[in-house]
Specification:
The structure is a single chain. This protein is mostly helical and 459 residues long. 77% of the residues lie in helices and 0% in strands. It has 19 helices and no strands. Helix 2 crosses helix 12, helix 5 packs antiparallel against helix 14 and helix 5 crosses helix 16. The longest helix has 35 residues. The termini are far apart. The mean pLDDT is 90. The chain binds tryptophan.
Length: 459
């Protein structure tokens, strides 16, 4: 069977940007910026995106296109049997992320329906809080919405790479940008918005600390869908003529732009109505509806907002599902359609305990965490960083020649940053991610050693 391909350069960029731009950029980024010191967090995040993020996304796309295989097959073909473990970590991570991502995706379905029905039109944060925790801790309702979200995801993936994924993202992504811009214009023109804009855009460098660096690098990874073979999978459907560095820069730019716009949408509005920017994960589902409730035309903006959030979540979930689907289809010859259905059902089933963990199963804990938090933790602290470290070492040390050829299309393009790319892959990214990972696991003790060491070096 002939391997599928993207129909156009625009289609590929929209698909990759769609994978990158998701709940991470619109839901997580603003609340991280809100809790981690605003402008300084934004600055550090952008630096990570433009350096390690950009280099690693190029490497992943190049690995995919060079091998024309799913992540496991790609690492095996290019690096031999042992390296295929890296691809395997990616496939497993795809399962893990999608099972909780889809639960949150289900909440966006629920909130879109509720906002259309007008049932979350209130200005009272207490009521909204009760409504939100009522939804997430219920038994059947969130599982039902999680199921709806999975069905939508499976449907698009079954239709295929060009016919399903590409066709939908080519409509959904521009729509997302239009909706986002409408909302940002509304938010920054609110009386009192300036304080929020300032908080978000003007760095206060005293806010920089280890925890914030960790959060910013983790967010750069997550928001570019790196470290788990998503971009390898999408890159594997890319044609030989495509300019990988250029396409990668577009994806990084678009993902960063949506983060910035997401921040400009949420934070000014939150400040304008005197709410707390450090509200954390509830910012999107509790604080923001209260803000909409205060606005003239809030009903409409609320509907637009949750429609946009759902679109962002969907264009990411289809790429998450596409990873294991490609794996089972290629490694075991299972038809794409059945692969999507079976994998989708398994993910739906793993999602059920994730959802219940926020309600009736909340008291069942492993390592002190409920099942939902455990999944998030395993991904954020282990599988994504390890996947990222292995991928960059692989690109920098094992297949560097192949990377050179892919990034310059066999010398027919000039890729000026190859030197920077090489050293980021070989040294900078593995060290930075290792440091971030260890400091997250061992916390302050390591930070103290670090400060001591750098003190010795500088004196
Ligand atoms: N980038 C997505 C977001 O910001 C989340 C994500 C992480 C992802 N890894 C992925 C999406 C892999 C698709 C594939 O929400």
């Amino acid at each position: 069977m002939k391997r599928e391909q993207w129909g156009s350069r625009f289609g590929f960029i929209m698909a990759a940007a769609g994978s990158a731009v998701g709940l991470g950029n619109i839901w997580k980024f603003p609340y991280l910026a809100g809790t981690q010191g605003g402008g300084a967090f934004l600055a550090v995040y952008l630096v990570f995106m433009a350096t390690i993020g950009a280099a690693l996304i190029m490497a992943e796309i190049a690995i995919g296109r060079s091998a024309k295989k799913n992540p496991v097959g790609a690492f095996r073909l290019l690096g031999g049997g042992l390296w295929s473990v890296t691809g395997m970590i990616g496939v497993i991570t795809g399962f893990l992320i999608l099972s909780y991502y889809s639960v949150v995706g289900g909440w966006t379905v629920a909130y879109l329906l509720k906002s259309v029905a007008g049932t979350i039109e209130t200005t009272k944060p207490d009521l909204l809080e009760a409504q939100f925790s009522g939804l997430v801790s219920a038994v059947l309702e969130p599982i039902l919405y999680h199921g709806v979200f999975m069905v939508l995801t499976i449907g698009i993936v079954i239709a295929g790479v060009a016919q399903g994924i590409e066709r939908s993202v080519k409509i959904l992504m521009p729509l997302l940008f239009i909706l986002l811009i409408v909302l940002v214009v509304r938010s920054v023109t609110l009386p009192g918005a300036w304080e929020g804009i300032e908080f978000f855009l003007v760095p206060d460098w005293s806010q920089v600390n280890g925890e914030m660096l960790r959060a910013a690098l983790g967010q750069a990874f997550f928001s570019l869908s790196l470290g788990m073979g998503a971009m390898i999978t999408y890159g594997s459907y890319l044609d030989k003529g495509a300019d990988i560095p250029n396409a990668s820069c577009w994806v990084v730019f678009l993902a960063a732009l949506v983060g910035v716009l997401g921040g400009l949408l949420v934070l000014p509005a939150v400040f304008a109505f005197g709410m707390d920017p450090g509200a954390g994960p509830g910012l999107t589902f509790i604080t923001l509806p209260a803000v909409f409730g205060e606005m003239i035309g809030g009903y409409l903006f609320q509907v637009i907002f949750f429609a946009m959030l759902l679109i962002a979540a969907l264009t990411s979930s289809i790429s998450l599902l596409a990873i294991p689907v490609a794996y089972f289809a290629e490694e075991y010859g299972i038809e794409r359609k059945w692969s999507a259905i079976v994998v989708g059902i398994v993910i739906f089933l793993i999602g059920i305990p994730c959802s219940l963990a926020l309600g009736i199963w909340g008291e069942y804990k492993l390592f002190g965490m409920n099942f939902f938090d455990l999944m998030v933790y395993a991904v954020d602290y282990y599988t994504l960083p390890i996947g990222g470290i292995l991928t960059s070492l692989f690109a920098g040390w094992v297949v560097l020649e192949k990377m050179r050829k892919e990034l310059s299309n066999d010398g027919s393009l000039t890729f000026r940053w190859i030197g920077a790319f090489t050293w980021i892959m070989r040294i900078v990214a593995p060290l930075a991610v290792t440091w971030v990972m260890l400091s997250a696991l061992f916390g302050e003790r390591l930070a103290a050693i670090w400060v001591m060491l750098s003190g010795l070096l500088w004196n």
